[in-house]
Amino acid sequence: MITPPVKAFGAVGEPVRLAGGKGGTWRAGDLVLKPVEYLPETLWRAEVLDQLPEDPEFQVARPVRTLDGEWVSDGWEASRFLPGEPDVSRPDDVLRTGIAFHAALAQVARPAFLDVRDDPWSDGDRVAWEESPLEASPVARELLRPLLEARHPVGLPAQAVHGDLAGNVLFAPGRPPAVIDWPLYWRPPSWASAVAVADALCWYGAGPDLAERWSHQPEWPQMLIRALVYRIVTHDRTSGLAGHLDAYRPVIHAVLRRTRPGSSPPP
Questions:
Q1: How many other C-beta atoms are found inside a 10 Å radius of the C-beta of residue 70?
Q2: Is 255 domain-assigned?
Q3: pLDDT tens-digit series, residues 118-162
Q4: What is the number of other CB atoms lying within 10 angstroms of the CB of residue 263?
Q5: Average pLDDT of the chain?
Q6: From 123, 133, 189, 246, which residue has the greatest number of CB atoms within 10 Å?
């Protein structure tokens, strides 16, 4: 079993594997350590989070340097442990937290590594925004067809956003919500909100009224369309869509009802 280099980060205590994530996250004392997935993103994210001002509406897991002053040791990164648990039954609180987090990031410059980052999630994002051609299974193509037909260009400004908010906001009594495990995307903040809403509708039992409550977000129907395209393409390229069609189809139907002229919002 590969364990993290706790001494390099000055951690105290034996490391204990944490539940969730991808099974490779450990806690040692007040530190959380996990393997680096993409070094340029890890280094960029550490610098941004290290300099992010405190905010009463949210907190972040501050990155921790090694005893040598580096952000990474032997392929591992570390951050401060934050108490709390994700709660997917609180999507509105997750969305409010994400909006506050994104407001704090509004002036962060776009990193160049986004042009070359290569993984299924980046691929799905580029397909959703018409920056890459669709390469998908026949099942995925059929599921995506009405979404792609309803998609049209939007002109919203992009910035650094969190692309997976739904399960990565921790709640603890008496503390602001904590944003963790930040996968960076350079998109409009309303797209990040739409991904969280789509996840809640597809996987966490939220009703269609959730999408309606947040319909004041800019270009909301188009953001929901792109969120679903992103998730479906990524899902198709990682684990496949078998067994998941019944989760996507009613949400696609509800989202597309919002895009039709003269239609009423989902009930």
A1: 13
A2: yes
A3: 999 999 999 999 999 999 999 999 999 999 999 999 999 999 999
A4: 10
A5: 94
A6: 189
The pLDDT value recorded for residue 1 is 59
From the list 37, 176, 12, the residue with the least C-alpha distance to 120 is 37
Residues 63 and 81: their CA atoms lie apart, in Å, by 10
Q: What letter would DSSP give residue 29?
A: T
The structural domain count of the chain equals 2
Q: How far is CA 41 from CA 14, 82, 228, in A?
A: 28, 21, 24
Return the ∠ at Cα 114 (arms to 69 and 4), rounded to 5°: 40
Q: Return d(Cα 106, Cα 108) in angstroms, integer.
A: 6
> 102 with 147, same domain?
yes
Per this entry, what is the length of the chain? 267
**What residue has token string 């956003």?**
161
Q: What is the pLDDT of residues 196-230, one digit of tens each?
A: 999 999 999 999 999 999 999 999 999 999 999 99
In one-letter notation, the amino acid at residue 5 is P
